[in-house]
Write a structure and sequence with these properties.
The protein is mainly alpha-helical and 93 residues long. 68% of the residues lie in helices and 0% in strands.
Length: 93
């Protein structure tokens, strides 16, 4: 069954907050983790959906910044991403 518009919006909202944290760390990790867990519980977002969000974030916002030969090399993104995954209890390969 196709997710509703509201569900898609919530998933995009969570993804945006995660991307923002990985890129700039504008808020404390504990606040982000609490927000994500609350949204997942309140709106019944499955663990599989959350894992898919994290996979997409890693592919789009972490991996492109890990090439040390580029001028936009930012290994801190991987550190933030791994810390977030560990706090959420989700393993992303």
């Amino acid at each position: 069954m196709e997710p509703s518009f509201a569900r898609k919006f919530l998933i995009l909202q969570i993804k945006g907050r995660v991307v923002s944290y990985v890129a700039r760390e504008p808020e404390p990790l504990s606040k982000l983790v609490k927000h994500v867990r609350t949204m997942c519980k309140r709106y019944r977002i499955a663990l599989e959906d959350l894992k898919q969000i994290l996979i997409e974030v890693k592919k789009e916002s972490v991996e492109p910044f890990l090439d040390s030969s580029r001028t936009f090399y930012q290994p801190i993104r991987l550190v933030r991403f791994e810390r977030l995954c560990r706090e959420l209890g989700i393993k992303v390969d």
